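Example record for the data management plan.
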Amino acid sequence: MKSSIARKLTVTNVLIVIVALLVFFSIVIVIFNNYTFNEFSRQLLIENQIANRVHRNDKIDKPAVYKVLSDSVNLVYTKQGEQGALELDYSSDNRLSNVVDIEELIGEYVRAGKKVLQVTIDGKTYLCTITTNREELQKADSAIVSLISTQSVGMVTRSFIIALIITIAGLTLVSILITLLVSRRITKPITKLTQIAKQYEQRNFDAEYIADTNDEIQDLSVAVSHMARSIKAHEGEKDRLFRQISHEIKTPLTAIYGYAEGIKSNVFSETDKPLDIIMSESLRIKKLTENIVLLSKLNSNIEVFQFEQCDLPKIIERAIETIESIAILNDIDIDYQPKAPSAIRADEDKLFRAFVNILSNCTKYTKTLIKIAIDETNDAVEVNISDDGDGFDQEALDNLLSGTAQEKSNGSGIGLSIVNAIIEAHGGKFIVGNNEHGGALFTIVLKK
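Corresponding structural encoding:
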């Protein structure tokens, strides 16, 4: 069973939130424990100092003041006589009156060298501080012992942990809800695009969806929509091309069949001319088939291009020489003024074929003149080829505006389609239109 993107996003985000909160929880607990210990220690020192001042003041009711110091347990010890030991004079908690060994406690306090230390009394742990009337604690005549149970610290910490756990649980729940909403917002247009793609799979390119998300998903939906329109246009052009190719092949096949049948039926007394026509039409079919194969390779990026530095004017001169005999036979002039060498990076053979196809198209439909001009800039070369024929009709130009190269009329369009594919493979532009004063205009722009 496939796992949806929304579920993956939700699980991933929730795991990230939980891990982040656990790390945060651990750090906060450590910090809070240290803070609580320090605060209780500070409070213990303050109350111990107050208890010490009270002990020195004989004018106040000491037990009453000691009871006010409710955060700590205070034990007051005094020495009886010069050589006597410290004895308990007052305790704010009678449970500790007989369990505290003051001499041992003072010794432990001295060895620790801290103002506040943890001690264990009667199986319980306390924070402890001691103040005496002398710097040497062992020689003191009086001692004030202040204690705070670590259970009090633990209770505060536990309360904080409970509050923190509740907060974390709430934040986790909120993050899950937010993640679900965001995930659905992200996956909803993706789901819609998936449905559209399935319609495209069924060749229904009329379906369209543009996501209103103002992000990469919207860009994707626009790209998919453009792709569908491009495929639809390509499918239409392919159908049109197939129909025209079928017509182009049908004409010579009809002629071949007719003359072959005539020869078989002894209709012709002389068979040389019919056989010449059969051979001519067969060559026409062969050439058309070769063009179809080449166009298919170009459109499928199968055809290999060999790019190298080439002289563009020489390529054009070769193309002119190739069709020059046809131009002479049809009394067509070619106006071309060769320029200084213009180096471009190109596949010379492919580019030569493109110019031959354009000039061949011109010789079919021009009346008396074909003009070739080269314009050069710092980074590109523009070649304009025009004739004085009837030019393209409006239907052909409309197809050209949609990216389809066609012959002027009654042609298969393969020749100019091959030109378009070759120029695009060179990273250039192939533009077809009409002159202002009539005739076709072919413009090729190539990068240097």
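Summary line stored alongside the record: Residues 401-410 have pLDDT under 50 and may be disordered.
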